[in-house]
Amino acid sequence: MSRVAVALFPGTNCEQDVVYALDLLGAEADLVWHRETDLSGAAGIVLPGGFAHGDYLRTGAIARFSPIMQEVERFAVAGRPVLGICNGFQILCEAGLLPGALVANRDLRFICRPVHVRVETTGSVLTRHAEVGAVLRIPLNSYEGNYVAPPQELDSLERTGRVVLRYVDERGEATGSPNGSANRIAAITNATGNVAGVMPHPERAVEDVLGSADGRVLLESFVASLQPVPA
Amino acid sequence: MSPDPPPHQQLGMTDTEYGGVVDILGRKPEPAELAMYSVMWSEHCSYKSSRAWLGRFRSDHPWVVLGPGENAGVVDLGDGWLAALRIESHNHPSFVEPYQGAATGVGGILRDIFTMGARPVGVWDPLRLGPLAEAHNRYLFSGVVAGIAGYGNAVGVPTLGGEVEFADRFSQNPLVNVMALGLMRREQLVTRAASGVGNRAILLGAATGRDGIGGASILASASFDEESGAKRPSVQVGDPFEEKKLIETCLELYERGLVVAIQDLGAAGISCATAECASGGGMGMDVDLDAVHLRESGMNAGEILMSESQERMLAVVRPDDVEEVLRLAETREVEASVIGTITDGDVLRVVKDGTTVAAIPAASLSEDAPLYRRPIEQPESLERRWADPPIVPAGIDLGETLLRLLDDPVLGDRSWIYEQYDHMLFLSTIVEPGNDGSLMRIKGTDKGLAVSTDGDSLRCYLDPRRSAERLVCEAALNVAVTGSVPYAVVDNLNFGNPEKPDVMWQFVETVEGMATACEALEVPVVGGNVSFYNETDGVDIYPAPVVGMLGFCDPIPGAPPRLDRAEAGSEVWVVGPERGDDFAGSAYATVVLDHLGGRPAAADLATAFLVTRHAARLAGDLPVVHDISAGGLAVALAEVCIRSGVGVVVGNGDWRLMLDEAPHRFLAVVPDGADLEATE
Q: What is the residue range of A100's domain?
């Protein structure tokens, strides 16, 4: 069995979209309530977008204490696939499983629109089947999407090739960042490549009729990274 | 010093209305009872000035499941699918506190939708504010947009469109309307009709506090004056996180068949919800206020009954199911308390601390509400306005004029508004905001739903009846260009003080125009909202009816028209009647000439019907089908060119034809070699 556990916090709202997209790609997924403490039957975990615990106090600040996060941490340490999308990315940072933090957008406005990102590495569960340099059109949907980290941390991310996606224009050129992210960072991964956080929503770009199917390669990469659970 | 007025007058009730309460009860009302009647009989809750006219709207079409009078209208989409739709206003609270006013407007309308058993799938926001050149209007507008975004994005329902208008009369009375759409399977439809003696009433959701006591309803039933800032504590505070949990809890309760009836708590809080559940099923109810979970201690009976704390629902369940409902709520992290029991008879009895604080016939709160036929009189200035049409010069610089029009915040790019709203959640948005009507698919089917909201207060000021007819036609065309046929209408009727005969005249003319046009286009009116008293210091708003049009298609076009799909080498056709002389209330007159006068052209409803159906057919085959409205053909063409990255050469460059806003017209982009014989 290689089923994906999609974590459901009170206030999460992109969980059905993630399940729909994984299903399109042939992966089976289960919604798992945030109080669950045993995910040993899952082959990977997705933390979907939304407003876990209302995003009260600070995005991810309460969610990191949800019981399910112990399992997320166990997966992360064990080298098993963990993907945080948008609010999920914020939670992974808040839990210390990814470096840095996501703060309010530069223009202090919520942004919901498709943006372009460039694949910077294939060394992550999000991009192992993508091509370096590929430009993808994927919807952004966040108020706190502005990635920040201390200078040494940013240097380290760049030096070790852990910046996974970067905001670019449609020709793939670095012209600016929609939300003010440091180094125009849209997605990062941990040192072992098994934990990834991405700000735009790949599950919103899985069919041409939705305006883009460019998110498929990212979710396909994640699905391909799933490790069957020993019986 | 004059003595304080009697309590009923302080609550906004006339002496005659108070006499009516005494007659019903056969005694003087207790304080809690008086509070209940005062809110339920307010203009906002009882529609006492408008009710006499609303019967003019028809909803006897075969696909209508529930028409006006329920929490939401419901229409049948075939194959077991139902759509629920509703429109509401949050005008007065949004002026007092723009962020929370708009946010709680979104929260309230969503509850109206999931009260019916439907999952809310879309929200639309028609907004009317004062000119953005004034700092206070910018404060109000940015607060309203942020409130819609803050609540809608977090609660997890996409905001799929809306419209904006900026005019001086809205500086003191901004209009914040909100429409919502929900989807459900037929077996999940529930109503508020409580039945079954002994069934229990469970209050679900947020704790009840002192916020908004006599809030929205009292606020929305009186005009503003310089004291209005003091009403800020009457505005409620929204919590989208609580609402999200409540939506999921209620949908699961329906799915598991645990709910007999349900009602959301809105105006007048517990008093209204318990009365409506009981009277809806022809029953009575005993309510124990000591069981209500409270946010603060020391609240008296009247405060608990009247509190308009947000994010609460009242579910009626069988006694055997109470434990399971409470358990499910606990799992979902939603507070719940059993506060009532359904009884034989018709009495709503409310107990606090072992004492009966209210015992009234439940139905009297709604059924015996006052009904007024207020005086009507055509404004004396109307014919002067008609005799003052815009003076159209002999020749103009069309390029310069077009730039001027596109610089207007209503006619230009509105993406800075709708990109603050999550309009993609649920992976169903096929045509997003920024086009004429938005189009969503129903996943797992071939069906699609389109929605457009339309208003035009300046033209309505010049001729409410004609303009109301045109609004319906425009909204119909806006959904037709997505490939949908007009399927149901909800309307939001925003007006000034109904005690003024000329405002009442505007209202009645509007209802007549809207009803006539809906009949001609064969579309039912399944719900609506009336917002009166949009008046400050004696000045009324422009009459501002808003049409919310639902369109339906089955199958949904494979590649529906969008403004960004035009390609070089295509022909552009203009379909519909040509006039060249309809400038009264047009964008050219109001924006460029700064002139508001003349009489708008009448709608031609037979033509509108044909044009609408023709547009829906063409939309199945063509890349761009675009309604021609504000700014005329010039602005319509510019929108297509800008969005598609192409240019256009116009054969007949008569600028009158380019700027005229004659109704029932659309443009179609026909690619080279396209064969349209079949659609002629």
A: 3-224
